[in-house]
Amino acid sequence: MLKGIAASQGIAIAKVYKLEPPVLNIVKRDSNPQEELEKLDQAFTKTIKDIEKIKDVASKHLAAEELAIFDAHLMMANDPELRNQIEAMIKNDNVNADYAADAVATQMIAMFESMDNEYFRERAADVKDVTYRLNCNIAGVEIPNLSTLDEPVIVVARDLTPSDTGSLNKEFAKGFATEIGGRTSHSAIMARSLEIPAIVGAKGILEAVKTGDVLVLDAINGEIIVNPTEEEIKVYTEKKEQFETEKEALKALKDQPSISKDGHKVELVGNIGSYNDVQGVLDNGGEGVGLFRTEFLYMQSEDDFPDEETQFNAYKAVLEGMKGKKVVIRTLDIGGDKKLKYYTFDEEMNPFLGVRAIRFCLMKKDIFRTQLRALLRASAYGQLGIMFPMIATLNEFREAKQLYNEEREKLIQEGIPVGDNVEVGIMVEIPAAAVLADRLAREVDFFSIGTNDLIQYSMAADRMSEPVSYLYQPLNPSILRLVKMAIDGAHAHGKWCGMCGEMAGDEMAVPLLLGLGLDEFSMSATSILKARKLVTELSYEEMKEVANEALNLDTMEEVEELLKKKI
Ligand code: PEP
Ligand code: MG
């Protein structure tokens, strides 16, 4: 059995089609510039035609967003800059067209790959794709065209270029496996968009298979079986059918509200780390974003805290991307295990109990004010909630809110638009905040319970320590009681209460949280539809009773037993 990364979930069983693109042998030759320029001209014309054809095929099964890649390729193939550079080299150095094209491309690729910006780094793949096609056309060799597949196959390749994935026709391409690549590689993203099972980074696959072999591609577990037995085919055919039935049932819930069978409505939203995660939330039926962890913006920055403009653009992009749906952005949560390249934190015995999150921001007010300004400016572009992490006392909240109000006032004075319905809340992730929730709720707009930290601080068990990880017990009655305090505290003052720790997407915990009255569940995008299915099958009134029972049990194990019996 071969292993790789399951990049697009599903199971496929079919014959192998091994994609073996021609290997070009490009060597420098003294040449007649006139002849080479003609060759180049013909190759450019054919390359443009080829890409147009691929785009045409791809437009039948790809969304406009993915098709944009072919427009980028066309632009590149029509780009006078690329062409001029190749032509100049042919004329000046008397070299052959393919050598010149390869040399210019190599330089461009190196330049793109060295860039800080992810967008530009990705462009390197496009240059490779277009110039490879150009060189094949100069050499007069055909690139295998996946759009001509006419029987069900699993495509096996070293890697797939955007043109390859764009040419895949779902009717015949049942899945693919590549030797290289990761979850965020081009081919992986395309596979998810096409919704065909794919495993990337399957080392050894090219050696292990030949065209015509039969493969089981288990892109749920990242496993590949070459030439399976009849028994294995039977087992995986059943798994495949089960997976597809479940997937269809979940898809039907994408645009449905999250309502229990007795009519109690909650919100299921997504946790994100950057703009790149927005589409995933929408595709999975997320009703908003419940936690945008902004620290990644700070951690990605190389030499200084990100400036106001950079932050404004990042927040605005997410708000616009979510198309008016609620987006809760958390202010900087740095410290603990999260460090910055350009800032040295003072040594502490217990960094998780030290200068972290809001504590850091209240000590470094300039940095905090910059973020608040960027957030406030972005608030004009959607429905924004701002929350402060690690609030332990009311005074911390008051101080943070005061800074927020001051920055808001300044922006208004400057005539810069800010949203007028921004909600300002806190994360409840320190037991002190849960215990005092009924008081905090008088002043905040909402709570979001951060159970990852709430459990660590309640159990006094470092979340990074493996030996004490048994104390991560979301279902322990002690944790359930703290969660209840937060929810009841919020409701007593007409405020809403969400949860953005891992517990919110935990299938065991969801029924209890529903029963405890949680209003908003924020989780990784891929958990949303499963949680929605669960909520729609549960009765709120019954879950209230189950939750009450759970609160009065002694141990986590007893709560688990109760859930097994009742759900
Ligand atoms: C939490 O503590 O539950 C939380 C969501 O925040 P983080 O995991 O980023 O600390
Ligand atoms: Mg936390």
Concise summary:
This protein is α/β, with parallel strands linked by helices and 567 residues long. The protein folds into three domains: 105 residues, Glucose Oxidase, domain 1, CATH 3.50.30.10; 107 residues, Enzyme I, Chain A, domain 2; 307 residues, Phosphoenolpyruvate-binding domains (TIM Barrel). It is 49% helix and 14% strand.
Helices and strands in order, then pairings?
Blueprint: E1 2-3, E2 5-8, E3 11-18, H1 33-58, H2 64-77, H3 80-93, H4 97-113, H5 118-139, E4 153-157, H6 162-167, E5 173-178, H7 186-194, E6 198-200, H8 205-208, E7 214-218, E8 223-226, H9 230-251, E9 258-259, E10 265-272, H10 278-283, E11 288-293, H11 295-300, H12 308-321, E12 326-330, H13 358-363, H14 365-378, E13 383-388, H15 394-413, E14 423-428, H16 431-435, H17 437-440, E15 446-449, H18 451-459, H19 477-492, E16 496-499, H20 509-516, E17 520-523, H21 528-537, H22 540-551, H23 556-566
Phosphoenolpyruvate is lined by residues 291, 293, 333, 429, 450-453, 500-501.
Kindly list the characteristics that best describe this protein.
567 residues; alpha/beta; Glucose Oxidase, domain 1; TIM Barrel; 8-stranded mixed beta sheet; 17 strands; 14% strand; binds phosphoenolpyruvate; binds magnesium ion
Overview of this structure, please?
This protein is an alpha/beta fold and 567 residues long. It has three domains: 2-20 and 145-230, Glucose Oxidase, domain 1, CATH 3.50.30; 33-139, Enzyme I, Chain A, domain 2; 260-566, TIM Barrel. It has helices at 33-58, 64-77, 80-93, 97-113, 118-139, 162-167, 186-194, 205-208, 230-251, 278-283, 295-300, 308-321, 358-363, 365-378, 394-413, 431-435, 437-440, 451-459, 477-492, 509-516, 528-537, 540-551, 556-566, and strands at residues 2-3, 5-8, 11-18, 153-157, 173-178, 198-200, 214-218, 223-226, 258-259, 265-272, 288-293, 326-330, 383-388, 423-428, 446-449, 496-499, 520-523. The protein has an eight-stranded mixed β-sheet. Strand 7 (214-218) and strand 8 (223-226) form a beta hairpin. Helix 2 (64-77) crosses helix 5 (118-139) and helix 22 packs antiparallel against helix 23. The mean pLDDT is 93. Phosphoenolpyruvate binds at residues 291, 293, 333, 429, 450-453, 500-501. Magnesium ion (MG) binds at residues 389, 429, 450, 452-453.
